[in-house]
Amino acid sequence: MHATIAPQMSFTEASQLWIESQTFEGNNRTHYVKPRTIKDFHQYRRSLIRMFGSLTLAEIHVGHLREYQRLRSLGELGNPEFEEKGKREVGPHRINQEVDMLRRVLKRGHAWMPEHEEIYQPLQVQESDVPRALTPQEQERFLSVAASRQEWALVHAYALLAFHTTASGCEMRGLRLGDLNLHDGILMVRSAHSKNKYRLRTIPLSGEAIFAAARLIEMAREKGATAVQHYLFPFRCCRDNWEPLKPMSNSGIKKPWDEVRKAAGLPAFVPHDTRHTAITRLAESGTPIPVIMSIAGHISRKMLMHYTWVCEQSKRSAVEVAFGKRVPNAPVDYSSKALKIG
Prior knowledge:
Number of domains: 2
Low-confidence stretches: 81-86
Mean pLDDT: 86
Strand content: 5-15%
Order of helices and strands: HHHHHHHHEEEHEEHHHH
């Protein structure tokens, strides 16, 4: 039985109890929500605490919520553990997720009042554009730069595997040694770290992907990851200590990645963009959309339309290369008389 959350509790205490209530006591393998979602809740909590930590649930009013939205959108109140030093603007979707968690904690503590419900408005989320994929030349440049220094070896192997599998950032970080079968050339994306149940899949590995995976396994073993349940990217708890049973955080590869992208002249390229680049390469090669989806898993309707367009453009280019696109000088008469039909 979980502890009761009361209006007189501080947000710091109440939010911790609320997160704990999302799992069954004494059973770390059974959850109401995915472990990845629990991890997200802890990140939202760290940001929320910076404004609401010392307030009781009963003291939090709608004005606080609006001020939080304003400050967060300006880059204030960020979580320094997961964000760059200094100010960093946060998108409306992330702010809405954080405030929604606050709302749920307040409701559990019977502190979400009718005026909250009447006045609070989530921020308007505009559908983002399709993320930019690297061109083949940019992709090759990034990999070449990453391979040029030993201290960037992890970035090189990570990017090479991601470019050849369509795995997203969270899927890459969630890989365990047992998810890689180099003998049969297969990578398994499991449900715990996939974005949704439709992203659970097996992915065939190319020769370059097998090379990258073998290199990553070798580096993981140097960090103490030797069992099948150990993570391919172990968590670094201090300078030379690693926790193989805990996955790398979403900032674990950030420093060397930023060094490589800057050296390669790609200022806006982030690890998750490897997925869009990989799917784009498949589409450009003329891979049928159903095959792309079996490799990449679920993609949004907007992304599906985008990759379908890429496939069509690829087919058009292939036809033009094979047969040319020169228009005859004289118009062609397609009438039955001219063609002597009938």
